[in-house]
Fold:
Amino acid sequence: EMYQPAPNPDDYLPASDLFQMAKLFPQAVKAAAPLNTTLSASQVSINKVVQAGAKAGFKWLDCNVTVNFLGEPDYTPFAQQFKSCGAKLIFSNQPPGPLTYNLLTAMAHLDYHPIILGEADVYGVAMAQWNTAGFGNNVYVRQAFQPLENASAVPAVQQYLDIVHASG
Structure:
């Protein structure tokens, strides 16, 4: 009994973002790798991105990186594993928080700066507040909607903001 404005069906994945990444970063998508975690629910979306990415021209490396969703004492071995594997782009469906922040920090300490393709939840205040050192500057997000900052360029976004503000 709900209407989902952005359905996420089990049997397909909108892949326009993956095709855009392939166009923007053609060399990086030829050496892509997923960040796997011990949270089995996240593996479903990872598998969909890997399958759709292949159709967009991604070449997926088998870096065999799986981190504990609840945390690791040190993320350096995982960052080193991605670096040694040659990953130039990493897909992560992890939200902003210790796992994401610690992995990005470990990568920066190894002078390793792959492109990170994340989900829309990475685009927000928490990530921006954390990213004072610039470790997240290569993070791109899969986003289905115009960002609220585009209100001056996209009339529908401004209309949405006006409606929200008018309702209090």
